[in-house]
Amino acid sequence: MALGTQSIGRRGKLAFRMVAMDMPAQAAEPGQLVPLGHTELYVESHGEGEPLLLVAGLGGVGRFWSRQVAPFAEHFRVITHDHRGVGRSGPGPLISNAGEMADDLLRLMDKLGLESAHLVGHSTGGAIGQHIALRAPERLRSLVLSASWAGPTPLFVQTFRTRRDVLINCGPLNYLMVGTLLAMPAWALSKEFSDANTYLHSRLAQFPGLEVELGRLNAVMSHDLRHQVSAIRTPTFVIGAHDDQLTPPNLSQELAERIPGARLHLLEEGGHFCPHTVTDRYNAAVLDFLKSQQGENLSWPNKSSVSHMR
Predict the structure, then answer these.
(1) Cβ–Cβ contacts within 10 Å for residue 63, how many?
(2) What distance, in Å, lies between the first and last C-alpha atoms of the chain?
């Protein structure tokens, strides 16, 4: 068996390629590309302890969790990845549904030798987590569904159809700007937005291309496990914000009501990007749940009531 690394340039960033022969499980260190066969995923790992997967949403880039990695790594081995075809990951077959993203994550867990892990999934990352909890519940120690949803509503569908139309007809810059306006509360955005070139430069640099993004939008709009999530038995924490325009609080409430034993925490503000806008409050709530699950087995008591914590 042999393991080698080589430096490669990808979209102006430095990454490392894992070259593994006859090695079914390899631990990921920060900045490695892990081959899955049909693609390769960029993976970072920080800290020690029970594994914790932080799974990004529509954007699909692990650095979405930049404000969670360090504090969470004080208690867990934190693993982030860029989804197939985006960020620093390699290209592959176009994504069309969240189940395919879940397949990629399960293959990644196999490659990293992770029999099970805690999972925090934001938005589409939560949809990925739902698929894994239903198909491979033994792989999850606990599940956090952050600003996610079980199935679409008319408002949800129209919002994402509009975003898709803006992308097709007005281009990536306007698409990203509309997405930012929907995801960020005005009070938070006004603090960070100096001008379009500065604020959107890195986002434009990471834009994966029209075909890839349209496939990912289709995965969002087609996700519907509304009538299946009641079968989830993984310990589940649902967190969202009252002022979220993309996944409004009623969608978080529905998840908590449908998943047996799920706990619900609605932040008073923060919008869809609450991990960024109200970081301290978000981290405290999520870490409180995750730490309560450390060392626990996969059993979860039957639901008697939904806890609404404010």
Answers:
(1) 15
(2) 53
Query: What tens digit of pLDDT does each residue of 117-165 get?
Result: 999 999 999 999 999 999 999 999 999 999 999 999 999 999 999 999 9
Rounded to an integer, what distance in angstroms lies between the CA atom of residue 270 and that of residue 240?
Answer: 9
Identify the CATH class of 2-153+220-295. alpha beta
In the block, tokens 């042999």 appear at: 2
117 in Cβ contact with 109 (< 8 Å): yes
Listing DSSP states for 242-272 in one string gives TT-SSS-HHHHHHHHHHSTT-EEEEESS--T
Which are the contacts of 107, defined by CB distance < 8 A and separation ≥ 6? 36, 37
Global confidence as pTM: 0.86
How far apart (Å, rounded) are the C-alpha atoms in residues 222 and 274? 24
Amino acid at 157: V
Spell out the domain ranges in the chain.
2-153+220-295
Residue type, 121: G
The pLDDT tens digits of the residues spanning 191-220 come to 999 888 888 887 898 899 999 999 999 999
Strand bridging mode 263-267 / 307-309: parallel
Residue 105: CB atoms within 10 A of its CB come to: 26
At 76 the three-state DSSP class reads: coil
Question: 205 Cβ partners below 8 Å, 6+ apart?
Answer: 11, 12
Strands 307-309 and 40-46: unpaired
CA 81 – CA 89 distance, rounded (Å): 8
What one-character DSSP code corresponds to residue 235? -
Cα–Cα nearest to 56, from 230, 220, 171: 220
For 178, residues 6+ apart whose C-beta sits below 8 A from its C-beta are 162, 163, 166
Length of the chain: 310
What are the angstrom distances between the C-alpha of 130 and each of 56, 167, 223, 231?
14, 28, 10, 10
Cα–Cα distance for residue pair 189/173, rounded to 1 Å? 16
Q: Which two tokens stand for residue 242?
A: 């009252």
